[in-house]
Amino acid sequence: MSKVSRFGVSLERDLLKKFDALIKKLGYENRSEAIRDLIRQRLVEEEWKDEKKESVAILGLVYDHHRRELQEKLTNIQHKHLSIIIASMHIHLDEHNCLEVIVLRGKVHALKKTADQLLATRNVKFGKLIMATMGAELL
Ligand code: NI
């Protein structure tokens, strides 16, 4: 565990009021934990700017499996990137719609490229990439 430092922050009263209202709504017990999370979030964003860095991501896709060749296209893309797609889960939402959750691990540029291919596949109704972190550099 690393040592804890304390520091003072000056900011406009109205800005602080808004921040306090927000963190209360989000369920934070105190400002420190909320600020720690903001900092971690920003550091993860920075990690994703380094294209050569190793990272992990979660990709969610919603699509109608009755759409011609769609399922096959999505599966083909995944088979072409075996080394970075480490897990996938398929949920049948109703008679037509499926949710696919794909976990990717590898270099940032490869993760983005593969995710973009899947997201851009025609007739995917919803797609979202969550860029996560290996966590080792965060406390
Ligand atoms: Ni399905």
What labels describe this entry?
139 residues; 4 helices
In short:
By secondary structure, this protein is of the alpha+beta class. Helix content is 39%, strand content 27%. It has 4 helices and 4 strands.
The largest sheet, given as strand count, sense and whether it forms a barrel, is:
4 strands, antiparallel
Present as ligands are: nickel (II) ion
- The residue ranges in which pLDDT falls below 50 over 5 or more consecutive positions are none
The total count of helices amounts to 4
Could you give the distance between the termini? 8 Å
Using the alpha-carbon principal axes, give the shape.
elongated
Mean pLDDT reading: 94
Share of residues in strands: 25-35%
